Amino acid sequence: MVIEAMEREIIKARERSNGKKATIVIVDDEQPILRELRFLLGRTYNIYTFENPLEAERFVEEHPVDMVISDELMPEMRGSELLARIHKKHPDICNVVLSGQAEKDDIVKAVNEGHIFSFLYKPVDRQQLLNVIEKGLENRLMKLTMAQQNVELKKYSENLEKMVEEKTKQLIQAYDKLKMLDQSKMNFLLYLAHEMDSSLDRIQRLAETLLNYFAIAGTELRLEKRALAIRPLADTILTERAQEIRSKNLTVRLDIGEGVEVVADPGYFKRVMEILIENAIEFTPKDGTISIEAHKGDQGNLVIKVSDTGKGIEEGDLERIFTPFVIESQKRRPGGFALNLPLAKYIILSHGGSIWAESKGPGRGASFFVAL
Q1: Per-block mean pLDDT, blocks of 10 residues, the chain (372 long)
Q2: Residues 6+ apart with CB under 8 A from 224
Q3: N or C end: fewer C-beta atoms under 10 angstroms in the chain?
Q4: For 179, phi and psi rounded to 5 degrees?
C-alpha cells in the first residue's frame, strides 16, 4: 500500500514536471497578497488561496497538493505550526513560509526541524519566489524518487534473501535426496538380485508393481486437496474387502465420528487408507480384531489409527517397513513386494503429514498412525 501510494505520487509529480501544472496552496490573512500571488503564479500553476489556515489544512487533506506557501503570522495559527501539521501527515509536500524579520528565529528553527523547505521575507521579491517554487518542486520530485528507490531496494534485498534461503534449502534437500538415492540404488539392486530366480509370472508382477510405485514415488505429486469425511471412506474400503474379512471371521471396530474430516487429495488419501486396512487384514489371523480410529491430536491435527491383533513387528523394523527395497521376503505378506507402506509414506509426506508404526513385538499386533 505504501509503495503504491508513493508510485502514484511520483507519477503525478513527473506528469507535472512534463508540462502539467503543479498544485500550490497559498495561505495568508491578507486578501491583497493572495490576489497578487494568484495573479503572479496562476498561469504556471494551479493556485488555491485561503485566508483561514484550518480551511487550507482541510483542503490539503482532500486534494493532491505539491506545495504549500503560508504566511507566518496569522490570527488563527502560525504558518510554521500549520506547515508542521501538514508535514506530519504529508511529508512529501514541499512547504514554504513567508515571514517578517521579527519571526526569523522561529522560522530558522522550523527549517532546521525539516518540515519547511525555505522561507522568504516580506515583501516578497517575485523572481526569488519563482526560483524557490521551482527548486522546491524539483526537490519534492527528487525526494519522492529516492524514497521509491529505497523501498524498491528494500524489496529487492528482502526478495534476494528469500531467494538465497530457498535455494540453500533446495540444495540441502537435493544433497539429502542424492544420498538417499545412492543408498536406495544399492538396496534396489540387491532387491532385484533376490528376485531374479523367481518365476516369470512373479517377475512380471514385480515389473508392474515397480512401474506403479515409481509413477507416484518418483514424481512430485500434484495434490488437489479438499475436505474428506473419514467414516464413509473407511466404510467403502471395508465393504470392498468384506469377503476377505468374512473368510477370516475378523471383528472390525470403528471409532470415527460422522463429522470427522481430513483435508487431503481424495485419490491419494484413499490409497493410503486402502494400504493400511489391507495390511491389517493380511497380517491378522482368523478370529482376530481390526480397529480403525480417528481423533484430534495434541497439535490440533487429525490422527488416524489402524490397529490389528496380528503377527506384530520387531522393534528394529518399525522404521524399515517404510523404506523401499529393504524388508526381507520372509517378513513380507505372501507374494508381496513390501512397497505399499513406503508408497503410503511418500503420499503422506507429500501432504505435509507424518506416518509411523507401533508394536509391542512379534505376536502382539501392530498399530499404524497417520497425522495430517
Answers
A1: 50 53 91 90 91 94 92 87 89 85 61 73 84 87 78 76 68 53 60 71 77 79 91 93 94 88 93 94 93 84 92 91 82 81 91 93 93 92
A2: 265, 266
A3: N
A4: -60, -40
**Pairing mode, strands 354-358 and 366-371:** antiparallel
113: part of which helix (H) or strand (E)? Answer: helix 104-113
Q: What are phi and psi of 298, to 5 degrees?
A: -65, -25
198 within 8 A of 206, measured Cβ to Cβ: yes
The strand ranges marked E within the chain are 23-27, 46-50, 67-71, 94-99, 118-121, 226-229, 251-255, 261-264, 289-296, 302-308, 354-358, 366-371
pLDDT for 315 equals: 92
Task: Check residue 139 and give its pLDDT.
Answer: 83
Do 188 and 325 meet the contact criterion of CB atoms below 8 Å apart? yes
At 347, the amino acid letter reads: I
Q: List the domains of the chain with CATH numbers.
A: 2-153 (3.40.50.2300), 200-371 (3.30.565.10)
Q: Give the pLDDT score at 334.
A: 76
